Amino acid sequence: MGKNSIDLFYDISELLRLFEKTMTIENFLYSVVELIATHMKSDVCSIYLYDENSGQLILTTTMGLSEDYTGKVKLSPGEGLTGLCFKEGKPLLVMEGQKHPSFKLIPGLTEEKYNAFLAVPIIRSMIPLGVLVLQHEKIGYFQETDERTLSVIAAQIAVAIENAKLILEITHKKKSHTHITEVEESFFLKGSAGSSGIAFGHAVILGKRDDAFTGIPKGKSTSLTLKDFERALGETLLQLEELQREMESEFSEMVSLIFSAHLLMLGDTAFSGRMIDLIRKGTSAEKAIIRVINQYIDLFSSDPNPRFKEKALDVKDIGHRLLRNLQKAEDEPGDYTGQIIIAYELLPSELVKLSAQNAAGFLLYGGGITAHIAILARSIGIPMVFCDDERLFRIKSGTCIIIDAYQGTAIINPGKEVYDNYQTMQNDHKKIVKKRVSGTTFTRDKTRIHLYANINLLSDLKIAIKMKAEGIGLYRSEFPYLVRNELPSEDDQYRVYRKLLEEMTGKEVSLRTLDIGGDKMLSYLSSSQEANPFLGLRAIRFSLKNRNIFSTQLKAMLRAGEGFTLKIMFPLIASVDDFMEAKNIVLENMETLKANGIPCNNKPRLGAMIELPSAVEVAHELAQQADFFSIGTNDLVQYMLGIDRTNETVCSMYTHYHPAVFRALKKVVNAAKEKSIELSVCGDIASEPFFIIFLIGIGVRQLSLNPRLLGDIQVQINSLNVKDAEIIAANILSMGTTKEIYGYVESIL
Length: 749
Ligand code: PEP
Ligand code: MG
Prior knowledge:
- With 749 residues, this protein is an alpha/beta fold.
- The chain has three domains: 5-179, Beta-Lactamase, CATH 3.30.450.40; 187-432, Phosphohistidine domain (Glucose Oxidase, domain 1); 441-748, TIM Barrel (Alpha-Beta Barrel), CATH 3.20.20.60.
- Helix content is 45%, strand content 16%.
- The strands form three sheets. Strands 15, 16, 17, 18, 19, 20, 21, 22 and 23 form a nine-stranded mixed sheet that branches. It has an eight-stranded mixed sheet with strand order 7-14-13-9-10-11-12-8. A six-stranded antiparallel sheet has the order 3-2-1-6-5-4.
- 48% of the residues are buried.
């Protein structure tokens, strides 16, 4: 008969090893039956598990019978052929099942056409756990040798089945328990705001990267057919291709096919073809999608290569779109319109992809407001709230949610009144037209303050121009690296930098060299995992260690700067030595370009970002070498306080209002003044009302901030007197505790 039992034993032991790692239980059980059916060349393979509470055998997984009946077919011991095998505790081999006196027909299960029947009990330490069943169309198909093979297999998988059964029971209990509280329970979650705005929508649970994909259940749609699936597949492909085109024109720095993995997978017959196979064999279209998506999630997340692990979320994303396209009415979009995404963590590229598919907002577990994912959300202009409350993962798919990213809160299942209030609030926010009054900013007593924009994506440029930014104080050059699958080439980078300089012609632009590491990892590069990435190979340290990558970027910047005033700054400078090493590499690259006759900027101004306490201490010496300083307070505060700004357990202790922070700022400003070099502040405090007063009070005259806030900040500055600000700054600098500072701040704001 050509059944392949040696390979089967081998594959089963492989499968058992995989189970130890990451597989979801449902997928594990399905993989077991699929493997056995394939090797035994059987039409059907099913597992029935015995439920002690109800005293019944339950069809738990099947390949070949209607999958809609899993969990629904229940047999008492002794009932039907399967029940008989279980009751007697020994194999049952029947040539023509339907002629057997114990045969029991279950309508809809599609068993009618199968004649040969072979069942063996699954027993562990004398305790019967369930039954493994094979069925085949051909009368007398199974032989005694098959009976022996299947018995050995049943013994081999018994331990794993016992564990699977335990986990299934626990999750079912948990599900039925949470069901009561989940369904209509309305609750409030307090977190922190990652970006601003209010969003309404229905929950889509992406959970952890390797959590199983469940899709959004839609009551009556199990009748969807192969034709429906093929239509959904075609629509999905078209939509993603269109989206890819839109992305290329909107975010030209991401030209490297951001949806390439999606498109490749959809086109792969092993992926969509597998779904089609399952549907042909009687699985409903929805279940076929969910099953294959979960198999791929297991496959990717069990891979040791982080690049593959990351793909798990892409797979869920495809599953979501396929299902939406399958279930939707004619004119509904297949994307995340009207949906709020709940996830454990997101990569910048994933945020871009999900936002491009019209997600209404994001509710993320943990994180911190200065994490890069939040910085990106602000650039994209999408509401995002971080929350470290475990109840986040009790929210059911489809639940109505409001996220208030002004307050950093989320309301789950809001009542009508709350919903209406938020609608009004959102409309009010929309009505406040934030206008930039003028391109130049003065305090009330006529001191000139320069307002620059922080740019993360090229799409921020439009806003910066509209808001009359005087230049770009910080371009975070890592974003094109973060949202791609590979390093951008020198030309790719040249185009981005050139566009920034051209759009800002006549204005100053500070390009920051690559700042990766810490919370910004490039999975396509990182070969070693660091125990403390924020203290590891980050920012300029990475560039100095990876000269080729650094030189490629510098050449792109120098070429782009030809004919413009070019400022280049280095992140996370720890010492004068770091700065000099980086400066020399710039000069070397400039010489190489010139020697090759390539036009470039030959007088770039080079700056140091002050983000480390060590840089504060050597600010005087640094000021002798650098052309300018840019204070990155987001990092400076985290390193002064020793608090990881993205670690949810400590990020609430992250505060700028620490006496050491104020004193450090003053020290750096003094050093820059003494050596007459330019200084600007580009961390988030540059848009905090109290800090603006303090910074102006200690002599800062340049601020660089989110361009969307430029109008508001200008209005605040217009109402300030430098003299008053100086008094306030002096008072703050005399204080020794955060409590005292908070009290003072409250009294004057
Ligand atoms: C900072 O640290 O303040 C800063 C501007 O850099 P980033 O937030 O990109 O680390
Ligand atoms: Mg920084």
